[in-house]
Amino acid sequence: MGRGARRPELRLPPLEPWAGDGLEPDGDYDGLEFADADLAGQDAAGARFMDCALRGCAVDGTKLRHARVLDTALTGPRGVGTDLSEATLRDVELTDPRLGGTQLHGAVLERVVVRGGKIDYLNLRMARLRDVVFESCVLVEPDFGGARLERVEFVDCALKGADFTGATLKDVDLRGAAPLEIARGLDRLSGAVIGTGQLLDLAPVLAAALGIRVE
């Protein structure tokens, strides 16, 4: 392994409560706290969130395409179908999410930590991840197809049915993933490190992928 992932170091300023009626496309949100806000179905495509805290917010179907989320803490978001495609997340802490079908295809994630919670069917196709840590969380069928991962760590994290088809990995640490279940893209794991026990667990799938018959 090369250098480990750099984690975000958030130091949020004193925050003002968000008092808006709804999010707006291309909106500018700076130094705000969104507490238990119902953001479901709202359109904030192209918006910028900087030095913000979102706590316990509902994000079912929230449209955040091309949004920029910078120096921001997201705690306990819940929802299905949140659209963050082609968004930028930099210096972000995501804690205890309960999300399903989150769209992050084509997104850029840099210095992001996902801690706790569960995300089902996370779409990271063609995304770029650099200095990203998945810690103590459950990822069910995440899709990294065509993505570029550099200095990405999985720490005490369940990785179930992951798809790495066409992905490019550099300094990716999978040793903390338990279980480590890779449905597709085993041939793309060059640039990753796994443990001896994980190699034994993956042996039947690797053998099948290489056309080796084990008797």
Give an account of the 3D structure.
- The protein is mainly beta and 215 residues long.
- The chain has 1 helix and 18 strands.
- The longest helix has 14 residues, at 196-209.
- The radius of gyration is 18 Å and the shape is elongated.
- The two termini are 34 Å apart.
- Pfam families: Pentapeptide, Pentapeptide_4.
- InterPro entries: 5peptide_repeat, Pentapeptide-BTB/POZ_domain.
Q: Into which percentage range does the β-strand content fall?
A: 35-45%
| pLDDT averaged residue by residue | 94
Number of helices: 1
What kind of sheet is the major sheet?
12 strands, parallel
Measured distance between first and last alpha carbons: 34 Å
Total E-strand runs:
18
Helix content: under 10%
> What's the helix-strand series?
EEEEEEEEEEEEEEEEEEH
Secondary structure category: mainly beta
User: What characteristic shape results from the CA principal axes?
Assistant: elongated
